[in-house]
Amino acid sequence: MLRQMSPDRRNDPNAPAAVSDSGDTRRRKSVLRRLGRLAVCCLSGFLILSLTLVMLYRYVPPPATPLMLLRSAEGYGIRKSWRPLDKMSPALVRAVLASEDQRFCLHFGFDWGAIRTAWEQYQSGDGELLGASTISMQTAKNVFLWPARDWLRKGFEAYFTTLTELAWSKKRIIEVYLNIIEWGPGIYGAEAAAQHYFHKPAAKLGANEAARLAAVLPDPLDRSASRPDDDVLARSAFILRQMPRLPVRLPLPCGAGL
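^ that's the sequence the OP posted. Answer follows.
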């Protein structure tokens, strides 16, 4: 037997709207719960994957980087040959530190003085996001992230920089950096660069050759270590002057245990 709606409820114009509002509220809460569960799953997956890769690359050479794949798609190809740090010239290690991060052994991934200066220039300049990247930050960026200069990438870069500084030694960070950094069109790592520019292994590089290689790092697609322009010559001369002043310890870069 059908229940009859009371006359008071039939005559109440607000009753159907209340039922409808209650249903909409339940549906919204259900959607929000599903989105929340999806967000938690995505975040958990990202954390697990990132931690796994950082721990894996503590021992295993990265097979490729996002930049390598991008350049390959652009037609540059990939030339690289992994070498352990003790198979590279100490002059190259010093030259790269002098060029890219003279406080490498003194900071925990972030050079806050340089970052503060870059932020002040960004606020007072033309709006460009100026660089203050340490070698730790460059390593994290090149190994794990896409090449861009935006705040989202910078946020992920800070995250991966912290992970690598926690999980890797300073020796491992500079070793990975010197093996994956771009040194010319399709040329990655110290060994491929030494062979390409000077026709010798990275272990045999002299101070002048190392300084020229370090000098091309800010613009590897347009600069050449074997055919240096005035900018490369000036920068390599600066690097040579800075190399003896670096706060490094033996074994390079920062002494035993670091």
